[in-house]
Design brief:
Radius of gyration: 22 Å
Largest sheet: 4 strands, mixed
Strand content: 5-15%
Oligomer: single chain
Number of strands: 21
Helix content: 25-40%
Distance between the termini: 11 Å
Shape: globular
Length: 462
Amino acid sequence: MRKKKIGYMGLSILTTLALAACNSSGGTDGASPGETASATKKGSEDKVKLEFWSVDRTDADYTREKIAKFQADNPGIEINYVIKTEEYNQAIDLAFASSQSPDIFRVKENTIQTFYKKGYLEPLDDYFNAEFKNKFTPLKDLNLFDGKMYSFPNYGYTMRLVYNVDLFEKAGIKNPPSTLQEMVETAKKLTAVGKADGAYGFALNFKSPASAFDRSARAIAELNGYGGYGFDFKTGRFDVSGFKPIVEAFRQMQVDGSTLPGMESLDIDPLRAQFAEGKIGMYISFSSEPGVYQNQFPAKIRWAAAQVPTFDGTVRGASGFLGGQWLSISKNSKHKKEAAKFLNFMYGEQIMLDYHEKGFGISMVPSVLSKAKKADIKGFEFFVPTKYDGAWPIQPTVAVQGEKYQDAFFKYMLQGGDLNKIIADLNKRYNEALDKAIAAKEVDVKPDPSFDPKNLQNMLVK
């Protein structure tokens, strides 16, 4: 296996999937000596009860299966596993504000920085031994803050346009769209042949505009050389103008009647269920989709996936490979040793190996990838990293006043308006928030005139 260093994040990731099978790593506890905590005794032994919150649904059955195994092996610990899909970040905030935070919770690349700044996370270094920690790569501003680890990586995601092969063939379309204009035209053709059966050309999970745009417009912008969250690394300023052609294409599909009716109230799982039934021609999402259509919503159609379209067919950047963290422990947990014991179990090599091979995500752990067999799951091959998948630097997080860019763009999609004026207002408010954050020394931002998004290509493959 060969490693390739990812420049901005210092990420070492292997992308060739080995053919060798893997044996279990066993149940070695990675907790360091000297950490003491125990279940409360009240005459008879009471169990330590750990609250575990996640926002992920695609791996829910797999996670429940592993929790059951952990509890069987550790009868003194009980895990209450809760999936919170509605306003997850707000639920975390409320839980900490009311001193009812979960002991363990899922963190992502777009939340861990905020949770760290708010003091929600427990440093993990002292709970795990060197052998355990050496399996993982410290990633500054992704799992490593001020020299301490707050989560360990498991897997990462690529982004693709997922499409209904049967509907494409019915419409006489041979290839997925490679430009935004082709995407608009393709959605119209798919709707024309599918509408009588309740099938439409395009959909996104716009019940949450942030989720919908972050899994679609972000990838398109990055492939075209624009920061996927509206930040320009060359100038060190926010500039959401790169979203303009994307938002215009989304609005045109809406105006054309090419989008699934009611998608403004659609969450991602109902969208996936509709796609599996053949009611959606195209959507954009993560590399977790193969697992979804094998385990969660068995697809009744033939489907495939392709690189997201660009503005004009030219690739000027790289679609961001997301990941670098997974589970964290609450700073307020009263059972941190037991929580660390559970993390040690979940980060066991066999569990991470199964996670990769079942297609839930692409492993970011070199020792796992070196032993992994090719995922035996339909569609996984479409999401394997290519030269056009790369790791972008981390953009600053700011507290913008008023409407977020995803909400403003979604409103434009539905209602129209002056998009240039909307973009100017967003840039003004986001940069005002950035200036305040810089003045308060909450972020350290420096322009990088030499930044070239094309240099992000070929990071994940030879």
